[in-house]
Amino acid sequence: MSRANILVSLALSLMSHGAAAEQISAPDLAAIQKAVEAGDGAALVPLLKGKTVTMEAAERDATMLVLLEHLALVAADSTAERSAVGQALLAIAPEDKIGKALAIAEPPAGAPTAEAPLPKEFSLALEKNDGKDLVRLVLSPTLKLSDLHSRAAEIEKAIAEYARPLPASNATDNKEAYRALAKLVPDNATYAEKSQSYAALEAERNESILRKLKKKTDEFNGISFYEHPAKPRYTDTRTYFLPYLGARDGRVWMRFVVHYTAESWLFVEKVSFNVDGVIVPLPDAEWKRDNDSEIWEWADVPVNIPLRMLLNKIADSKKTVVRFEGRQYFDNVTISATDKQAIRDMFVAEEALKKQASVTTEKP
């Protein structure tokens, strides 16, 4: 049967049979004819969706062909659009398997729809009232605000409560918190202003930290070393736990020194960190020793990703106790607030050096 004959038959079929669910009007009839003739599935779908139309086999097949051609162009993740195509197919072929598979039931107009669940990480952070983690999640470049649904205000409140008691001297955490709040509420000028203000304070602080480091450059290999002023002038003064930085030819790297001082030899073989109750061993290291009136033993290791994570946890911990295990005995030392601050400072200095040189961190 020719297309012209199919269209004539379609018109006669629609006029004679009508629609069980909704009467086909003359304008709709003309629109259906036009859409089938033009092969315009996008226009055909809303004309058929929600109706029950009886057609002869040839007319039904021609209409289904137009709908299926349109379906092939619909994105796989466009659930609503694919559902509409399925309902249009069922309008002319109620038992069609493709139509049934596609036609996801839609709620009646005005009926409340079920809200998609909040991403699991956000739910856990809200449950723990972990403002810092919520800041991290909100600032993720992959987050779409629509993913938060109606919980955005709740998340905003939790982050605001986290930010409120932060001391002004903590420029970095304040900046990140207000960046997250500004992302959640773009039209809140106060959030944006505070984020910019703390960003300026952070930049000033970073430069200040970098300036106070003790810098020494090796005249033979050209490596510049940056040490924190918390490092004792004399090696037998105290036990300490301090990172330091190296830089040469546009490369920046970090190392970590564990330095034990006492009146008698321990002959350290192993070191473990008890960080707020969690035990983490220091990776195997070569221990060196020296003495005068006191003895000192130390290990100097590169800061890889696991050690970087450990140092961050130590810096943020309430209490970290270090156990030095020797050949026969052991000794416990608590990391001081001075060394924790020095660890934080050296991470800041590392970023400042990298920005100055526009390089990535690399181990020598």
- What's the order of the H and E elements? HHHHHHHHHHHEEEEEEEEHEEH
Largest sheet: 6 strands, antiparallel
Give the averaged pLDDT, no decimals: 86
Q: Cα-atom Rg, whole angstroms?
A: 35 Å
Which descriptor suits the 3D outline? elongated
Intertermini distance: 79 Å
Oligomeric state of the chains in view? single chain
- What is the percentage of strand-forming residues? 15-25%
CATH fold label of the largest domain: Immunoglobulin-like
Task: Please identify, by name, the CATH architecture of the largest domain.
Answer: Sandwich
Q: What number of domains? A: 3
Low-confidence stretches: 14-21
By DSSP (H or I, 4+ residues per run), the number of helices equals 13
Side by side, the strands of the main sheet go 1-2-3-4-8-7
| β-strand number | 10
Helix and strand composition category: alpha+beta
Text of the CATH class of the largest domain: Mainly Beta
Helix content: 40-55%
Describe the structure.
This protein is an alpha+beta fold and 364 residues long. The chain has three domains: 3-102, no CATH class; 120-209, no CATH class; 214-357, Sandwich (Immunoglobulin-like). The protein contains 13 helices and ten strands. The strands form two sheets. The protein has a six-stranded antiparallel β-sheet, covered by helices on one side. A four-stranded antiparallel β-sheet has the order 6-5-9-10, covered by helices on one side. The longest helix is centred in the middle third of the chain and has 24 residues, at 189-212.
